[in-house]
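Much of what follows relies on a compact textual record of a protein's fold. Think of the row as the fold of the chain written in a discrete alphabet. An example makes this concrete, so a full record is given next.


***
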Amino acid sequence: MSERRDDALNRFARKNRLSYTLDELLSTMRRHKIVRGLLLSPPLQGGVPLPNNEVIRLCGRSGGMLAPVITVEPALKDVKAALKLAEENKRVLKAFKVRLGYVKASADSPVFGRLYDYAESEGLPVLFHTGDTAFSTGDLARSHPLTLDGLANKREELTIVLCHFGNPWFEDVAELIYKHPNVYADISGAYAEKYAEWLAKKISEAVYFAAGAGKIIFGTDYPITKHSETLALVKKLEVDDSDKEKILHLNAERVFGL
């Protein structure tokens, strides 16, 4: 979130009848007994992400409920700036984010080499947008989850999180989290009321295929998806209660150190 008029996600907030403010987000989290969350840069009009220092500032106003994720763009100056900001905010930083499908670079682009080195050395996960893009100009060839297979092979010490479960490529993500010890996936943005039963079925099958839910993480993608919707999706999953507990909080606590 940004609390800015040029936030490109404002149209999703209006569609979901959300005020899309920090106060609303924190109030919603409290209502649903969500004690910690990660805050990421939304895209601004024009395609660039919200500056990372603004994300860190918003987290500072959250009373410890939100922790920042630094978004890294595919340019050497942006990687350098992100790593400098990470060093300055080591105490609160929980992860990095790469916007695959929205930027003209693949996950294994050499420009991200220093980022991956730093993330490995500090034990910080790197989140990757995977699957469908919110805008028709997105590059699906770069956001397909299987593009992460090569990176996971080369970087076995790098914790990789596939955002949005690669929707609609659920089976491919299930294979990746089964194959690679260092690859995880979140369910953020994976909700549509008309297709809730189908989504629950696909994620339940993925839990079975991946031999358990130990690598699947809760997420909302607010304001595109509401907290109540994603919580309802987890309730629909045909998995054991112990697996639901892993998805809802245990995995995030372990992977992000929350």
